[in-house]
Amino acid sequence: MVVATYVLAPLPNYISSKCSDNNEFYSDNDSNKKDFGQFLTAILLVTGVCE
Question: What keywords does the record list, in alphabetical order (predicted)?
């Protein structure tokens, strides 16, 4: 279960980076998508440590 959590952890970050625009100046919507992906990645990593 822990290995599966660590394997799936980078997926939200990857998906949110592909959905957001790669411009130098992010709009609020793109920044929110990227922040949400990083938040989900952090939750999965903490979950893996706590298991």
Answer: Membrane, Transmembrane, Transmembrane helix
10-40: buried (b, 16+ CB within 10 Å) or exposed (e) per residue?
A: eebbeebeeebeeeeeeeeebeebbeebeeb
Name residue, tokens 């709009």.
Answer: 27
Terminus-to-terminus CA distance in the chain, angstroms? 8
> In this structure, are residues 1 and 48 in contact, taking their beta carbons and an 8 Å threshold?
no
d(CA 15, CA 23): 16
Query: What is the tens place of the pLDDT at every residue in 14-44?
Result: 988 887 666 656 555 667 788 888 999 999 9
Structure tokens, 43: 């939750």
